[in-house]
Write a structure and sequence with these properties.
This protein has helices at 15-27, 37-52, 72-75, 79-90, 111-121, 139-145, 173-178, 185-191, and strands spanning 7-14, 59-66, 93-96, 127-131, 150-155, 158-162, 165-169, 181-184. The protein has 205 residues and is α/β, with parallel strands linked by helices. It has a six-stranded parallel sheet, with helices on both faces.
Length: 205
């Protein structure tokens, strides 16, 4: 019998989107906390298996976090950023820095698409999971599809008051419609509130 091969999953996290999601859940949502990277990693793995290999739990997973900052230590030296990087490394994420930044000194890190295509060209993944809302990544699913890699996008939609106006954050329609599967993570989040009994969830307690 031919040897059974694992489903090879690559998980790409857009740090720009994660920054906005964490700000929302920490300051404007009743949870008043932030995303737990270990829980997010575990949930992404489980969802990719459920959608792309429902009869098996045999898989490999590599995780990549794309900083919205260029040389972040030069821009911010506080404990929070250093703690973030330590936490990412501790749960198995590779950290990548941006090559440029926008007017607010941070921007979606476009190396994410280039790296994903490079990994695909070396046959390192069967499925790519993208955590992002940004239209800059709308080509991610399309370009990976041309090299035989299927995609799952984890996006977020939310609205909150800020100063004297309402702020709406939505996943780009092009990104949402071009992937193989899309998950509205704000709906998932409502089912997984922070836990305090030692279990790993989507949010820190």
């Amino acid at each position: 019998m031919p040897e059974k091969k694992p489903l090879r999953i690559a998980f790409f996290v857009d740090g720009f989107t994660l920054k906005k999601v964490n700000e929302y859940y920490r300051y404007f949502h009743p949870y008043h906390t932030r995303v737990d990277f270990r829980g997010l990693r575990s949930w992404a793995r489980h969802e990719a298996l459920r959608l792309f290999s429902p009869k098996s739990s045999f898989c490999t997973l590599e995780c990549h976090y794309y900083h919205p900052y260029k040389k972040p230590r030069d821009l911010c030296t506080d404990y929070g950023l250093k703690g973030l990087e330590r936490e990412l490394h501790h749960v198995g994420f590779n950290v990548h820095y941006a090559e440029s930044y926008g007017k607010d000194r941070y921007t979606p890190n476009m190396s994410l698409i280039e790296d994903a295509l490079t990994f695909a060209s070396f046959d390192r993944m069967d499925v790519a999971v993208l955590f992002s809302t940004q239209g800059q990544y709308s080509l991610f699913p399309e370009r990976l599809r041309t090299v035989g890699v299927r995609t799952l996008v984890l996006g977020w939609n939310f609205t909150y008051p800020k100063a004297d106006r309402w702020v709406s954050w939505k996943t780009d329609s092009g990104l949402r419609e071009s992937c193989d599967y899309y998950v509205a993570m704000e709906q998932v989040a409502n089912k997984y509130p922070p836990v305090s009994d030692g279990r790993v969830g989507l949010f820190l307690r």
